[in-house]
């Protein structure tokens, strides 16, 4: 589409709707949405980087025949009535896996889903952001600039509300256009399987040792330093939760790692570190020093190991040394998946999850048959369409490698 054909979308068709802040007004909106028709566009705005957790601070809903509604989930934290009213409707979200957890916390959980971002991936669009897809497919440009705002602030500025309303303004139209493209490409069944899989995915279990994801932790070599990271991370998480602040605003990861590297012995030593001079950081200086002291004085038997054993194969970069045959299998299987993905015009990770390819290469089935490989992939969570496309080519590759080793 040429630049001349692109039209800026500056205002919602019905104007910026007022924010719903009371149960009575919410009930009126629910009745109007229930009387509408067709799919329901849904979006949520969070305050990532500002608040603890991923709760929603604004929910946008739009349906044909009803219009757009902006719901403040702080005073209207129970959306189960809305959920019940829309139980039979398909909900349209962009990058659904990002918003579904916070919507579920409010009681809103779709039974039928269309994810416009995932549809774009399956169709091979190189850029699948909402604004880019609306521009590329529908010919409108959306306002940018507020996705990373602090949506927990009140009152919400008018330009933020305009941005939020526009995010659902054309979402159903985008869904309809993408469905036509999926049908023409023979990929609609793939998409329906993927959408159903998103809805069937259980909530994520808490990550084991989440402190190990501290940015920069790879610089640490001693278990003592890791203990300091663990103590500081745990203290920061408690303070951040109590103050409802993003942990990074309470104490940056860089400060945790610097303290673990330097192992300061006095409060003055800790305060002298460059990363401990911020106002928020100084506010809890005694707590940080106590955490460092706990890490420094733990008995050796209580120090964390450098790594924890996982339930999967080791990191791929170690395979060549530990198991050259597995490394060769991985390289070959990755090439097969990449070629298939290119043939069908979609990202390799949407054809088969990289972790599934690694696990198959590390522990292939005893018999390199399409049936055995397909069963292995299904056990790893691959959908029917993925197994149909990949099982036979992967089985052939495994068979050739096994035959070569035996000859």
Automatic annotation (TrEMBL):
List the residue ranges of the region (Disordered).
Answer: 296-319
- HRDC domain segment(s): 222-302
| InterPro entries (alphabetical) | 3'-5'_exonuclease_dom, Exo_C, HRDC-like_sf, HRDC_dom, HRDC_dom_sf, RNase_D-like, RNaseH-like_sf, RNaseH_sf
Q: Which PROSITE patterns match?
A: HRDC
| UniProt-listed Pfam families | DNA_pol_A_exo1, DNA_pol_A_exoN, HRDC
State the SUPFAM superfamilies in the record.
HRDC-like, Ribonuclease H-like
Any idea what this protein is called?
A: Ribonuclease D
Lineage here is: Bacteria, Bacillati, Actinomycetota, Actinomycetes, Streptosporangiales
């Amino acid at each position: 589409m040429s630049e001349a054909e692109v039209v800026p979308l500056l205002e919602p068709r019905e104007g910026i709707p007022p924010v719903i802040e009371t149960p009575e007004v919410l009930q009126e909106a629910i009745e109007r949405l229930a009387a509408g028709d067709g799919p329901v566009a849904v979006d949520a705005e969070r305050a990532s980087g500002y608040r603890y957790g991923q709760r929603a601070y604004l929910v946008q809903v739009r349906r044909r025949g009803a219009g757009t509604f902006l719901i403040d989930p702080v005073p209207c934290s129970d959306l189960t009535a809305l959920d019940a009213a829309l139980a039979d409707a398909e909900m349209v979200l962009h990058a659904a896996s990002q918003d579904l957890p916070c919507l579920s916390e409010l009681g809103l959980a779709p039974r039928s889903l269309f994810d416009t971002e995932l549809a774009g991936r399956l169709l091979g669009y190189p850029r699948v952001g909402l604004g880019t897809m609306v521009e590329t497919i529908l010919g409108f440009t959306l306002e940018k600039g507020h996705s990373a705002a602090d949506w927990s602030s009140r009152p919400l500025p008018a330009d933020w509300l305009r941005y939020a309303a526009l995010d659902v303004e054309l979402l159903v139209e985008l869904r309809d256009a993408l469905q036509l493209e999926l049908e023409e490409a023979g990929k609609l069944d793939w998409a329906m399987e993927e959408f159903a899989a998103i809805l069937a995915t259980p909530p994520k279990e808490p990550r084991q040792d989440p402190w190990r994801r501290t940015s920069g932790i790879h610089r640490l070599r001693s278990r003592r330093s890791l203990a300091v990271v663990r103590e500081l991370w745990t203290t920061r998480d408690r303070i951040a939760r109590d103050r409802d602040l993003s942990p990074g605003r309470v104490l940056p990861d860089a400060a945790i790692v610097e303290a673990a590297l330097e192992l300061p012995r006095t409060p003055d030593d800790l305060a002298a570190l460059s990363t401990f001079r911020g106002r928020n950081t100084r506010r809890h200086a005694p707590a940080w020093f106590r955490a460092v002291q706990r890490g420094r004085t733990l008995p050796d038997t209580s120090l964390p190991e450098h790594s924890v054993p996982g339930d999967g194969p080791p990191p791929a970069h170690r395979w060549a040394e530990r198991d050259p045959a597995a490394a060769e299998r991985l390289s070959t299987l990755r090439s097969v998946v990449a070629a298939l993905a290119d043939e069908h015009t979609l990202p390799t990770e949407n054809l088969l999850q990289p972790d599934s390819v690694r696990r198959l290469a590390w522990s292939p089935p005893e018999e390199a048959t399409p049936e055995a490989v397909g069963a292995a992939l299904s056990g790893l969570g691959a959908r029917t369409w993925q197994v149909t496309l990949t099982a036979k080519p992967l089985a052939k590759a495994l068979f050739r490698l096994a035959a070569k080793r035996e000859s």
